[in-house]
Design goal:
The protein has 113 residues and is α+β, with helices and mostly antiparallel strands. 11% of the residues lie in helices and 24% in strands. It contains 2 helices and 5 strands. It has helices spanning 26-30, 47-53, and strands at 12-15, 22-25, 59-66, 75-82, 87-89. The protein has a 3-stranded antiparallel β-sheet with strand order 3-4-5. A two-stranded antiparallel sheet has the order 1-2. The radius of gyration is 17 Å and the shape is elongated. It starts with 11 loop residues before the first strand and ends in a 24-residue tail after the last strand.
Length: 113
């Protein structure tokens, strides 16, 4: 669904049908101690870019609201975990590096001699 910031995010949900006014981030809501979602956080969130760059089915994302001084410098901290290798992922856009070895499009074909 398109976020208030204009990017497509699979975790954002809104419902304005028949007078409802519901906007939520299901990633922040599903993360323990994720914080409280507000629509202005979508502009500062890296999740839409991560999802566009990495479509690995083993990548699990968590998002937490970063609190700032008097509401300034608020943002979203995103962490990633690979369920196949059972390790934290330092760069979610790239992934853990182990899962890519399974896909034949990422492996260079052997040269014929």
């Amino acid at each position: 669904m398109i976020t208030p910031a204009g990017s497509d995010c699979p975790f954002y949900y809104e419902d304005f049908h028949r007078g409802r006014e519901r906007q939520e981030c299901r990633l922040i809501d599903g993360t323990p101690n994720g914080g409280t979602y507000a629509p202005d956080l979508c502009a500062k969130c890296a999740v839409p870019g991560i999802v566009r760059a990495n479509a690995c089915p083993n990548l699990v994302l968590e998002a937490r609201v970063r609190k700032g001084f008097l509401g300034l410098m608020r943002g979203v901290d995103v962490s990633a975990y690979c369920t196949r290798t059972m390790q934290n992922v330092a760069e979610p856009q790239i992934g853990c590096g182990q899962c890519h070895k399974e896909f034949p499009t990422f492996v260079t074909p052997p040269e014929d001699t």
